[in-house]
Write a structure and sequence with these properties.
about 40% helix, single chain, globular, 6 helices, seven-stranded mixed beta sheet, about 210 residues, alpha+beta
């Protein structure tokens, strides 16, 4: 009895369809794994005293944080070019830098009372500075604090503390307002302040991949 092999009419097309289907399945699976991994790592790296500037702050507080994040760059630049001076709050207002500027937006965002706050930790080679915005209406917004800290070597070289990517941290507190006598990251945590972390774009990927 003779054996006869019957080939599919569209064998080539079927193989191509199978290859494409397999590739799509692999890509979808890889994407779901990466998404799950990103969420898990994000939760792991957000410490107990930290909150997300995107998911944990809302409304006016999120807007104030965004403005303050940008203003901190201007403040740091001024200090670097005018060392050891720091810009006064009145100067920031005069330069129309939000959130220090008392305009209509400031009126609707809790009317934060901004002032420079001594940190009590300044030394010859250590530069620290704090700007505090106390909310006058906690229903509209909470209170904010931006803390600068960096170092200068004996020859005047500017550098950051080990492991830090920027010279400042931004802190948030709602309802109550308590400031420690000496302002450091540790004492702020002890007094219930929360460090606001910008988990967006490159910052988020960089934080999650540490």
């Amino acid at each position: 009895m003779a054996a006869v092999t019957v080939s599919p009419l569209r064998q080539r097309g079927e193989i191509l369809f199978l290859a494409v289907s397999t590739a799509v399945i692999l890509l979808v699976a890889a994407g779901m794994i990466a998404l799950k991994k990103g969420k898990t790592e994000g939760a792991k790296h957000l410490k107990g005293y930290q909150i997300s500037g995107i998911s944990d702050l809302t409304g006016n507080n999120q807007g104030i944080f965004t403005d303050l994040y940008t203003a901190a760059l201007d403040i740091e630049y001024y200090h670097q070019t005018n060392h050891p001076a720091w810009p006064a709050v009145t100067q920031l207002m005069g330069d129309k830098i939000a959130p220090f500027l008392k305009d209509e937006l400031w009126q609707s965002r809790g009317r934060l009372d901004w002032r420079e706050q001594p940190t009590g930790t300044d030394a010859a080679l250590v530069n620290t500075k704090a700007y505090v915005g106390k909310s006058t209406n906690s229903a509209d917004a909470g209170s904010f604090l931006v803390l600068f800290e960096h170092y200068h070597s004996s020859d005047g070289t500017y550098y950051l503390a080990g492991g830090k990517e920027r010279s400042y941290t931004i802190w948030f507190k709602n309802n109550t307002f308590d400031l420690p006598a000496t302002i450091t990251e540790g004492t702020l945590v002890q007094n219930g302040w929360k460090e606001v972390v910008s988990y967006t774009g490159k910052d988020q990927r960089k934080e999650l991949n540490r």
